[in-house]
Amino acid sequence: MSNAAEAVPEVINLSAGEKGFVDEIKALGATHILDCIQCAKCAAACPMALAGFPFFNKRVIQAILLGLKEMLLDDTSIWACQSCNRCTEVCPRKVNPFEVMQAMRRVAVREFALPTLAIEGIKSLYDVGHAVYLAQAHENRVKVGLPQKPPSTVAHPTALRELQALLEQTALSDLGIIPMGKSGVKESCEV
Amino acid sequence: MRVGFFVGCNTAFNRPDLEKAVRYAFPALGVELDDLEGQSCCPTWGTMPSIDLAGWCAVGARNYALAEEKNLDMITVCGSCYGSLAESRHKLLSDPELKARVNAMLKSIGREFKGTSRIRHAICYLYKELGPEKIKEAVRHKLDGITIAVQPGCHALWPSEVYEDKEEDTFHPKVLIELCEALGAKAPYYSRLLDCCGMGGMRSTDMEKSFKLVEKKLNSMKEEINPDLIVTACSSCLIQLDTAQGFLQKDRKINYEIPVLHYMQLLALCLGAEPGQVASLGKTNVQSVVNKILEG
Ligand code: SF4
Ligand code: SF4
After folding, report:
1. pLDDT tens digit string along A16-61?
2. Would you say B11 and A134 are in contact if contact means Cβ atoms under 8 Å apart?
3. Domains of chain B from N-terminus onward
4. Domains and CATH numbers, chain A
5. Are the Cβ atoms of A166 and B59 closer than 8 angstroms?
6. Which of A93, B23, B94, B224 is least surrounded by CB atoms within 10 angstroms?
7. Which ligand is nearest to the CA of B157?
8. Distance, CA of B9 to CA of A129 (rounded, Å)
9. Which pLDDT score is estimated for A185?
10. 8 Å CB contact of A171 and B52
11. Which atom of ligand 2 is nearest to the CA of A49?
């Protein structure tokens, strides 16, 4: 927790908080955020807090309630969330803190504050149907007695086209984070 | 018994020896696997779920549609796939508006999500549908004298509300422990048994912080139960615990190595599979423990 203190300024200017931020977050999936009582059970269970990321679940919620959008966008913590849902399991108020983390990521994506690796994963998902993809994997696959390609979109161009047609109807196409409509298979990607 | 095999990215591309183990072990136990041709990524947390809730559910729903068209449930050996698919299904089934929106998207590709197929966690499937006794009877090699540190993985446990396959008490999991014991091994408790492995978003965001978690976890195993082997129920935990040890050794953070296998790999070995096919692509050296297994 050593860098938690560095990441947050000592005095927070509350009047600088963004109005309507909570509503934005709610609309993007964090439906129950206002039920949070800051009891910190979620923080006690969170591996992000244990690993020393400054903005773990409870703090993200509080920052959102204070409208501190910029501060959250400046920090990469939300991308370290493991989607482990320990927080969801223990929250006595059924806030679903994990959903808040996800909603915060959805805000960040709309502000183009997403890490390069996430962009790579999305591009790979669109190009080959897998967020994690290693083009050289066929060697190992053959070595262990499997066909070169798994029975997925990688081996079925029509299935890939189907998936792409779906993705083209999502927020991805409005946001323009990745080139769509013409896919170019890349070498590898790990998210 | 017949189920769709949801392969997932990490298993197919990073650890195809695990895929091979699944394809060996399930049929050997009388469970037939269907390939669900044309399946895609679940999609994993850092992609669609982080961008667009309906888009996430649509990709998940397309995978479900492939299984529903064949009247099959799906099994997966990856926690992220299990978590993402279980959650998107739960959302679709509890929100009619979302379901209608997703089905409108699916209509354009000639598919529909009904909600008739489920995602099953391979390890819990083994436990519930076959049971430790049947597995005990089927194995050729026993693990007597082997101590295992289990790593159930977050997505086998929480959020229990949305999971079809769940532990009686999610903070005291026993499924993986009992399945290891069914093979003849000891799988004692250690204090950081429930700790996250630090893979996934955390490792992509800050490798050093992620490895700090692994180090804590490994030290707890080593000091408290000194295991011959780590056994995971998740492909991501497998990759993380297996690959992190080399980095930690190089940085002089740990001075030991514990071999790591996914339970499906261990099971396949005990059922008589060829080690070169089902347990050959890890970074930790599993040879000595494989030899022990083959002797048992
Ligand atoms: S456990 Fe729930 S109520 Fe308590 S701080 Fe976390 S989100 Fe808020
Ligand atoms: S889901 Fe994210 S926020 Fe919740 S406990 Fe896990 S890592 Fe922390």
Report:
1. 788 899 999 999 999 999 999 999 999 999 999 999 999 999 999 9
2. no
3. 2-121 (1.20.1050.140), 138-295 (3.40.50.11810)
4. 16-110 (1.10.1060.10), 116-189 (no CATH)
5. yes
6. B94
7. 2
8. 9
9. 46
10. yes
11. 8
Summary mean pLDDT of chain A: 91
CB B139 within 8 A of CB B223: no
pLDDT for A182 equals 60
List the end-to-end C-alpha distance of chain B, in Å, as a whole number.
29
Neighbours of A32 (CB within 10 A): 15
Interchain proximity B206–A53, CB inside 8 Å: yes
Ligand 1: which residue has its CA nearest to atom 4? A39
Q: Which of B49, B105, B195 sits opposite A166 (nearest CB)?
A: B105
Q: Which residues, numbered 170 to 189 in chain B, qualify as contacts with chain A under a Cβ-Cβ cut-off of 8 Å? A: 170
Mean pLDDT, rounded, of chain B: 97
Tell me, yes or no, if A40 comes closer than 8 A to chain B by beta carbon: no
Low-confidence ranges of chain B (pLDDT < 50): none
Strand partners, A189: A133
Chain B segment 112-151 residues within 8 A of A by beta carbon are none
State the greatest distance between any 2 C-alpha atoms of chain A, in Å, as a whole number.
Answer: 63
